[in-house]
Design goal:
mainly alpha; 59 residues; transmembrane helix; membrane; 2 helices; 0% strand
Length: 59
């Protein structure tokens, strides 16, 4: 359709062009690291907030 390759082939070509990951590196790009840290931060804040509320006796 519209003389384009299927999405699977385009993704495969893009992945093949990427250099291999460096040893010990877990995130391929910075936004993945930022999203991961934000999610972990939100979970920690939620647990700390729940703990504080329980210690204060708020139901």
């Amino acid at each position: 359709m519209f003389n384009r390759k299927p999405i699977e082939e385009r993704i495969a070509e893009r992945v093949a062009r990427r250099p291999p990951l460096k040893e010990g590196k877990h995130f391929e790009h910075r936004p993945a690291l930022i999203v991961f840290l934000v999610v972990i931060g939100l979970v920690v804040v939620k647990f700390v907030g729940a703990f504080v509320l329980m210690r204060l006796g708020v139901h």
